[in-house]
Design goal:
Radius of gyration: 17 Å
CATH architecture: Up-down Bundle
Distance between the termini: 25 Å
Number of helices: 10
Helix content: 55-70%
Number of strands: 2
Shape: globular
CATH topology: Rhomboid-like fold
Number of domains: 1
Largest sheet: 2 strands, antiparallel
CATH class: Mainly Alpha
Structural class: mainly alpha
CATH superfamily: Rhomboid-like
Strand content: under 5%
């Protein structure tokens, strides 16, 4: 698939731009308070393309690179539609997270989020449901955990940490994970094809 590489290049470009120009970072970060007061709805998507620093960017793009490759491998029967499916999965998670975060944090003037946490979580959930026995590894943990064990733990951990109102990261992972699960079951039941024929 070509789309993930385009997204990675765009994210690298806009993240560097945001680090160089503070006003650009401020204008593109997801800020529910400003969305509510000024109607800056573009932030629901723009925040996906910028990151806090090089480490944040590296880990997210490393995840996108690896997870998108697995999605590509798992869905050969979709042909050219894989590209559109990937975009729907990636940006759909970001938009759903933005919607929930907006209503939850619109009165918090200092809450903001940047990065593709919800999108990556959606990709991860989608892949685990497709192959629940795959081992999920960590940088500091040499032993892999089966996906069917990892995913519930991952969702529970982020659900119980969701009340950190100022970073919103755990909430993003939780909502993205739920979206990935929903998207997987829609595809399994052929509801996905409504996007193309209706």
């Amino acid at each position: 698939m070509l789309v993930p590489y385009i997204l990675m290049v765009a994210t690298l470009f806009f993240s560097i731009l945001a680090w160089e120009y503070n006003y650009f970072f401020s204008d593109w970060a997801f800020r529910p308070f400003l969305m509510d007061k000024k109607g800056e709805w573009i932030r629901a998507i723009s925040h996906v393309f910028i990151h806090f620093n090089y480490i944040h960017l590296f880990f997210n793009m490393f995840a996108v690179y690896n997870l998108s490759g697995i999605v590509d491998h798992f869905l050969p029967f979709f042909g050219w539609r894989k590209e559109i499916l990937f975009l729907q999965l990636y940006f759909g998670a970001a938009l759903l997270n933005a919607l929930f975060s907006y209503f939850r944090n619109r009165y918090e003037p200092f809450s903001q989020v940047v990065g593709a946490s919800a999108s990556i979580s959606a990709l991860l959930s989608f892949i685990i449901l497709h192959n629940p026995h795959m081992n999920m590894g960590f940088f500091l943990l040499p032993v892999g955990i089966p996906g069917y064990v990892f995913l519930p733990l991952f969702l529970m951990k982020n659900f119980f940490l969701r009340d950190n109102r100022y970073t919103l990261e755990s909430f993003s992972f939780f909502i993205g994970g739920l979206y990935g699960i929903l998207f997987y079951f829609l595809i399994q039941n052929n509801i996905y094809f409504f996007f193309f024929f209706f």
